[in-house]
Write a structure and sequence with these properties.
This protein is α+β, with helices and mostly antiparallel strands. It has three domains: 134 residues, Periplasmic binding protein-like II (D-Maltodextrin-Binding Protein, domain 2), CATH 3.40.190; 160 residues, Dipeptide-binding Protein, domain 1; 233 residues, Dipeptide-binding Protein, domain 3 (Roll), CATH 3.10.105. The chain has 19 helices and 20 strands. It has a five-stranded mixed sheet with strand order 8-9-10-1-11, with helices on both faces. Helix 16 runs antiparallel to helix 18 and helix 18 runs antiparallel to helix 19. The protein is globular and about 75 Å long. This is Peptide/nickel transport system substrate-binding protein.
Length: 560
């Protein structure tokens, strides 16, 4: 019977049935799976798979974003002023190949992540917590150690977000002996240098993953993946025995599949298309928390002369420091019609936030001023900018957006219309650009103005506030925004474990950001997901966006 069930599931990879079997979950998304190596898992598509094949020391408790519970650990304690964390590990846990998980595996997993620290990986924020200065093998050994069977982390300084970072999907435990056998790093210093910064997206471990999760990989190709329940799983046995992930690029095809019952969960399109899914058997769960933050970046030091036109305020271009004048940034902020965007793009389901931090996260301050669409205020600030030269001579601004991103295009064109209506000498050119090129150019500080979004790596305000507002943050090269007070407050927030003190500091940053207007905050969407009625375990009450964007829960917690 087990063999027959597996054959049926394999057939499903290429042949649609009238309805998926009760023990099988079929998910359809628009993208391929970049990697199954935890160290490189830094995209939502890979994360949806890896979080079910592998496990971390800690996980989020239920739908909470602030409460953590043990997973591969059974308990932990902090000491030494928050600079030492000691974890008791779960006993009797098996990897998919039958090996028993040990402390050596856990130590190796984190040392491997710290050692590789690829530019395309999530590991930068683990290094930030555990390593001071350059990464060396001696520092790896000191940062992560096994002592009497316990896993011990030693931090150079306290990090209030450290535990949340350990719940990130990529911080999973891998099998040391197995990894070395298939050609991965063997854990020895003598062979370590060749692995520093290495791109492991297509690593041996990605091709043949071996985790402790409730599901193990059976088969994977360019468009399909099949996983089955792991018979040796240490936890509760899942009701879903087979999971099929299918790449279906056409939105219309995904919609038809879930209507027919060929798919249980799909990646939906924008809210404006939801009416197409109003059909029997489909459950649209709306009003879910949005844990992303999106904004127009106004680059204060543009590093691409080809996007500057004349490079002067002569009506034929802009200077490289165009957005360094706070009056320009404030004028642009008053020129965006937030209410219209919520009404027309988000169909009334949008929230104007006070800061670039999800309103469900600790540290979010509701009582901070926000900008509103006000052409008179925009005009006043434009007239003050650059001592009146901007208003007198005008400008030409080139603004690129991600090709195919309808919401970003609409937002950009809305801003363009409003700005050009203020002064006929103002010109904004809105141009579509391929996503990979746009990302690289913005990372290099080339883009004058661009729309970008950040999704959380871990449920802590630091992952947004430092990323967006610090001059040492991940997004600094894209905005070149720097303020001494903001930097000081963010560093202070990293140095204290007091939640009230951190919240107070983040509110100070938000108020200062309102004054300096480094970003135009695009209203946040209200999230939703689409599943078949018969799929149980997906609900508002169970939904945790840090686990999975579509279901808010792991495969093992679903049933039909």
């Amino acid at each position: 019977m087990k063999k027959f069930g597996l054959i049926v599931s394999l057939a499903l990879l290429s042949t649609a049935l009238a309805a998926t079997p009760k023990d099988t979950l079929v998910y359809q998304g628009s993208s391929d799976i970049p990697t199954l190596d935890p160290v490189m898992t830094y995209d939502t598509v890979s994360g949806r798979i890896v979080e079910n094949l592998y496990e971390t020391l800690l996980t989020y408790k239920g739908n909470s974003l602030t409460e953590l519970e043990p997973l591969l650990a059974t308990s932990w304690k902090a000491s030494n002023g928050g600079k030492t964390y000691t974890f008791k590990l779960r006993q009797g846990v098996k990897f998919h190949n039958g090996d028993t998980m040990t402390c050596d595996d856990a130590e190796y997993s984190f040392e491997r992540a710290l050692l590789v620290n690829s530019a395309e990986s999530w590991t930068w924020f683990l290094v930030e917590s555990l390593i001071s200065g350059d990464v060396t093998f001696a520092k790896l050994n000191n940062a992560v150690e096994c002592k009497n069977g316990d896993l011990v982390f030693t931090l150079p300084k306290a990090d209030p977000a450290f535990l949340a970072k350990l719940a990130f999907t990529g911080a999973a435990i891998v099998d040391k002996e197995y990894s070395a056998k298939i050609g991965e790093w063997d854990g020895k210093e003598a062979n370590s240098k060749q692995w520093v910064g290495k791109d492991l997206n297509d690593s041996a471990l990605s091709k043949a993953p071996n985790g402790t999760g409730a599901y193990q990989l059976v088969r994977r190709d360019a468009n399909n993946l099949l996983a089955r329940a792991f018979a040796g799983y240490w936890g509760k046995k899942p009701a879903i025995q087979n999971v099929i992930f299918q790449k279906v690029t056409e939105q219309a095809s995904r919609y038809e599949a879930i209507k027919r019952g060929d798919a249980d969960v799909i990646e939906p399109g924008p809210r404006s298309t939801l009416s197409q899914l109003d059909a029997p058997g489909i459950n649209i769960i709306d009003g879910l928390p949005n844990t992303g933050a999106r904004a127009f970046f106004m680059n204060e030091s543009i590093k691409d002369d080809t996007l500057l036109g004349s490079g002067k305020l002569d009506g034929k271009g802009i200077p490289a420091n165009f957005f360094s004048d706070v009056n320009v940034r404030r004028a642009f902020s008053y020129a965006f019609d937030y209410d219209r965007y919520i009404k027309e793009v988000q169909l009334g389901k949008g929230v104007q936030r006070t800061m670039l931090l999800p309103d469900t996260f600790p540290g979010y301050a509701k009582d901070v001023k926000t900008y509103e669409y006000d052409p008179k205020q925009a005009t006043a600030y434009f007239k003050r900018a650059f001592g009146g030269e901007l208003w007198k001579n005008g400008f030409v601004l080139k603004m690129n957006y991600r090709a195919g991103a309808a919401a970003s295009q609409t937002a950009a064109e809305m801003l363009k219309r409003n700005i050009e209506a203020i002064n006929p000498k103002f010109k904004v050119e809105v141009i579509a650009k391929q996503w990979s090129t746009l990302l690289n150019d913005s990372k290099s500080g080339k883009e004058p103005m661009v729309i970008l979004q950040w999704a959380p790596d871990y449920a802590d305000p630091d992952n947004f506030m430092y990323v967006f507002y610090s001059s040492n943050g991940y997004y600094f090269p894209r905005s070149n925004f720097k303020d001494a007070s903001v930097d000081k407050w963010l560093d202070q927030a990293r140095a204290t474990t007091s939640a009230s003190r951190r919240n107070s500091l983040y509110k100070q940053v938000a108020n200062r950001a309102y004054q300096l207007a480094p970003y135009i905050l695009i209203p946040a969407d209200v999230s939703f997901t689409v599943v078949r009625d018969e799929l149980k375990g997906v609900s508002k009450g169970a939904y945790n966006p840090m686990v999975n964007f579509e279901t808010g829960t792991l495969w093992k917690d679903l049933s039909k």
